[in-house]
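Example record

The entry below shows one chain as it appears in the dataset: sequence first, then structure tokens.
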Amino acid sequence: KQVIIWTHKAEGILKYNHNESIQCLSYNPVTQQLASGTASDLGLWSPEQKSVSKHKVGSKILAMSWTNDGLHLALGLFGGHVSIRDKFGVEKADVVRSAPVWTLTWNPVPTKQDPTDVLVVGCWDQTLSFYKVSGQEYGKEHRLDFDPCSIDFFSNGDYFVLGGSNKKVQLWSREGVYLGDLGERDDWIWTVAVRPKQNNVCVGCNDGTVMMYQVVFSTVHGLYQDRYAYRDVMTDVISQHLVT
């Protein structure tokens, strides 16, 4: 029920309490705010104010994720809601699902064609869905045959990995295209984490094992006389005339 904030020298500088056990923590990548989620409230600690603001929630917070600009925080709730809030904790949008929202994460790098922040939501109604900051659905929903437990993006935002009750680590494109399996374990996969700026994926399994996969993304391209073609955003082919 207690959050302790440490320096890089392992010195505790501040601690604060919740009335319920703490389910998850997440640092704002810009303002250094710390968000903490419990079964009954959301806590926001700010280094400038040296204080903690508390906001009541309708059910247990299972997951949380900040946008890359630090302006919005998404909460996944056991009651089936996705709560999108500003950095002060004020709710701006509420998305209603039919089962616990166990995992969610914002894409860290919006595309140049569409600079919209996109939230990927894994719900235990066995779906994968995408939303904007406004709460509007973005693209189509995908039916899964398992309960998703963890999602994490590669640093470039082009791909994300997904693990869950199917005991597999799946690779997806940012557009929501399933690309294949990276590996399979003997039990549920509760957490996946991509190494920043690298293509290594660490996996935590229900049987107590931890494994790391190295992912190699090969370039899909071709050359014919003075024409060069390559794949872009998974489904486009860009053709270039080398002479010009």
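Notes for this example: The longest strand covers residues 178-184. The mean pLDDT is 92.
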